[in-house]
Specification:
Layout (H helix, E strand, L loop, with lengths): L23 E9 L4 E8 L5 E8 L3 E6 L5 E9 L4 E5 L2 E3 L7 H13 L1 E13 L8 E12 L15 E6 H9 L6 H15 L7 E2 L10
Parallel strand pairs: 4-9
Antiparallel strand pairs: 1-2, 2-3, 4-7, 5-6, 5-10, 8-9, 8-11
Length: 218
């Protein structure tokens, strides 16, 4: 490693994202859908000019990296029309139930999409999916102590009716992500974060499952 690239002692706080909001001179919502909306704002720039910024207003989402005792990840293969691909993903879903805590939403998605439950939940990683064009925030949970859920299976609809469910070795997912053969951001981010978390002190060092989430303060 180049000496100039090494982190400076005590520099962690310097590289922490911070909330900030530049003045909006005018704004409108040209399109309002059932869940998302398109917003168009004229924003005051630091140099005194203004610029229009168009972006998707999104309720946020959760994902579940479900890891079993054999170091395999529960994955789903689902058709995604905007990109015209079937993508391997992890169980995930929108925060579209008003007031529902992210952890409860993640547990619901694991049950509905994969008919599984987990005994141990941790916050794995938080990220903004496409911060230049969307307000979507995603929290990925690490779920362990997996078992099949009891009761009837959730009745899937639309694209979810064609879901393919499988178990994939974690290391294979990482290799496929790095070779450009996996593209879903929640799966890729979650797999890489899982390997990093294990190397940095283990999963018990991860944040508790109910850690506050400033991006979506339920």
């Amino acid at each position: 490693m180049n000496a100039d690239a090494r982190p400076e002692p005590g520099s962690a706080g310097r590289f922490t994202d911070s909330p900030e909001e530049w003045p909006v001179i005018e704004g409108k919502t040209p399109y309002q859908g059932r869940i998302t909306a398109m917003r168009s704002d004229v924003v005051a720039m630091p140099d005194g000019t203004t610029a229009r910024r168009d972006y998707l207003v999104h309720p946020g989402a959760v994902g579940v990296l479900a890891l079993d005792e054999d170091d395999r990840v529960l994955v789903l293969r689902q058709y995604r029309h905007p990109v015209r691909h079937k993508l391997w993903e992890v169980p995930a879903g929108l925060l579209d139930v008003p007031g529902e805590p992210p952890l409860l939403a993640a547990q619901r998605e694991l049950y509905e999409e994969a008919h599984h439950k987990a005994d141990d939940w941790r916050v794995l990683v938080d990220f903004y999916n496409t911060p230049g064009s969307s307000s979507e925030a995603i929290r990925v949970f690490l779920a362990r102590g997996l078992s099949e859920a009891v009761g009837d299976r959730y009745e899937a609809h639309a694209e979810e009716a064609d879901l393919e469910i499988a178990w994939a070795p974690l290391e294979d997912l990482v290799a496929l992500a790095l070779s450009g053969e996996l593209h879903n951001p929640t799966l890729v981010t979650g797999a890489l974060a899982t390997v990093a978390a294990r190397a940095r002190g283990g999963f018990d060092a991860l944040r508790p499952a109910e850690t506050p989430w400033p991006a979506r303060p339920f």
